[in-house]
Amino acid sequence: MPNLNLPEKPQRPNVLLVMCDQLRGDCLGFAGHPDVKTPNLDTIAAQGTFFDNAYSACPTCVPARATLFTGKTPAHTGRVGYRDGVTWDFPHMMPQEFTNAGYQTACLGKLHVHPPRLACGFETLRLHDGYLGCYQGSDIPHWMHQDVHDDYLHFLREHVDHPVWVDSSGPECNSWVYHPWLYDESLHPTNWVTDETIRFLETRDRTRPFFCMASYVRPHPPLDAPRSYFDLYNERDLREPAHGDWDNDAAGERDGWVTNSVHGCRDATLRHEAMAGYYACITHVDHQIGRLITALKRDGSFNDTIILFVADHGEMLFDHASFRKLLPYEGSTRVPLIVRVGKNVAASTPHRSESVVELMDVMPTLLDLCGVEVPEGVDGASLAGEVLKGEHIERPYVHGGHAFTYEQSNQWIVTPHDKYVWFSQSGVEHYFDLDADPREEHDLIADPTRQARVAELRELLVHELEGREEGFVVDGRLHTVDKVLEVLSH
Predict the structure, then answer these.
(1) Known catalytic residue at 212
(2) Are 224 and 171 a contacting pair, CB within 8 Å?
(3) Residue 9: its pLDDT value, please?
């Protein structure tokens, strides 16, 4: 038998960061959803720590990912709304910290930074960001165009014998329309991310630990899961969307003809198809995550690896006559967060956590679990103590918000038990008792027995917004503004 002189196992644990785009926090079997089937994610949740109160403080793609990569609040990243085309020039980003610590680093799938293919510290990039309208025009540099920089699009065109684009199935990238995937399932972008991730895992440098981000675009629209997944849900009775005593049903009736309306869809059949299509995308992703887990087991690294699963934000999915994201409600803001530590990394006891946590906590948590120094200026908290010892973090609330239109620009405070919402241009307020009303169907803002609590949460929001350049606070009180900023001047 020849002496193969195999390399010694790296001393630090591997990290597999699995991220989905637009996956609601309640859309897992383990989270108690009555319809969605996610057996592989349920397994990881049952073996690890499941955070019931995980939030995205600025719930759209770009600002959420800025927070994830920097460990900073949206106010400190400066990304307090959605705007493409703003250069990412943060002094510390999570992938760079892992690369500096000797990890082999790779991102497979969605990165969504500017300029396109900015590495952010990753050594390997195989990218597909979904449909990016800002990189479609003829007035941008050739190298920025999605035709040029998107790896998946090149892959798909190599395997299809006619002109094809990322939206060739029909539905567009913010639409509630479902149409099944047109091509072989193996060519779907969800499968492609899995294939690319497994290829990285198989061919990695075995002398170093890895930090690998498998980043799926789905269940973000287009809702185009293969037909077999859609059929799992379309003929079933599905739980109706949340409907509150405060909903703007008139806006849904007015705007519900428009396929990408923020006020959803007025046609019951199309709503049902959209929900079935959304759940189908989730189960499709779940089955592909099962392939990643099998790949880790096959090469013997499963128990040497920390797996963290998260989403950048949720999806309203017709709750409260709304669709898409950015709103301050649970469908949009609450995200799934699961951490599983391999048994060769450290001992841990599987459990559910009630700690209120946010995307900014992912960076310090993973660095801490891997024994890598957390850079100065990080706002997030390490959840390592929670994961390994069940120690709750000392955080009473999370502050979130999002700049957008007059109707939708919002700021909010959420605790494990309740939520206060203030719309920063209209001045509309809500208060929800999340313990008694987790779907936010009863607005208690005018309830005389809740006024002391509302005042307490309002003061917390004043504290968070004091000194912001938008002018949200004047003389110690919340102050509506005519103009909001998606990106702060710093």
Answers:
(1) no
(2) yes
(3) 77
